[in-house]
Design a protein that fits this description.
The chain has an 8-stranded mixed β-sheet with strand order 3-4-2-1-5-7-8-6, with helices on both faces. 44% of the residues lie in helices and 18% in strands. It is globular and about 45 Å long. It is of the alpha/beta class.
């Protein structure tokens, strides 16, 4: 049997909501449809934000505590709903999925890292798609710094994936000059990382806590592990299959 290409797909809140205030079932259907088409040649691990966005749809918490604790509580409420939506929709496409909650401290302990690798390999080998999110109830890194971009890169490195795909709300990374002129032009291939950092214009999205700078940091972590990163426009339908067929502009970081 030919070895499947292992892909880690990172989906931010802005992509999952299609830049609205609600999780888009249509977007999750689009992701499931693409995975179903690619499953003969690719195996997928997903890092997904969106728990807080789901909770905000139907609950408003009153609290005198700092905002970060309210967001942790919202994540706790939203996470089961987020996974249920994934499981319902993926099942319609014949896909099995599971939930994995990680925190950054898990990547600092050898035993934890070994456990993550072993568990996820068992899941993937049995045709389950792990859906990973930060364990926001005990950790605040994703809430405060970067919408799971770093978590995706650390996970990609740990699991030795072949490709990291970061779905965002732009056609990849734009040149600084074109962005200023309101004529966004995508940087298609990146080989010089220092030059790339000079080009980055950082703007955070409405739901996400990241921005392009956190995606560059994630890509750099992946590059150090010899993993290629694609930054694609996840708002478009068929964003992965179109990127693979080179029919849309996106940024490839080698």
């Amino acid at each position: 049997m030919q070895k499947k290409k292992r892909i880690l797909l990172k989906i931010g809140s802005n992509t999952l909501t299609k830049e609205t205030d609600n999780i888009s079932r249509g977007k999750i259907e689009d992701i499931a449809n693409q995975i179903a088409k690619l499953q003969d040649t690719c195996e997928f691990i997903i890092v997904s934000s969106g728990a807080i966005a789901v909770a905000k749809q139907f609950v408003k918490l009153e609290s005198k505590h700092e905002e970060v604790f309210v967001k942790q509580a919202l994540a706790s409420i939203g996470q089961p709903h987020l996974i249920r939506i994934y499981q319902e929709i993926f099942r319609e496409y014949g896909l099995l999925s599971s939930q994995c909650l990680l925190s950054y401290s898990d990547f600092e302990k050898q035993q934890s890292k070994t456990n993550i690798v072993n568990t996820i390999n068992v899941l993937v080998n049995n045709n389950y798609i792990p859906i990973i999110n930060e364990n926001d109830t005990v950790a605040t890194d994703e809430i405060q710094f970067g919408d799971n971009d770093k978590l995706a890169a650390l996970t990609a490195t740990l699991l030795d994936v072949d490709l990291l795909i970061i779905a965002t709300n732009t056609n990849g990374i734009y040149t600084k000059e074109s962005f200023k002129n309101n004529t966004p032009e995508t940087i298609l291939v990146v080989e010089d990382f220092d030059h790339l950092k000079d080009e980055v214009v950082n703007s955070k999205s409405s739901h996400g806590s990241g921005g392009m700078a956190s995606k560059i940091e994630a890509a750099e972590l992946a590059k150090n592990a010899n993993i290629e990163t694609w930054i694609v426009n996840g708002l478009e339908d068929n964003f992965m299959t179109n990127a693979m067929n080179n029919t849309v502009p996106f940024t490839k970081i080698k």
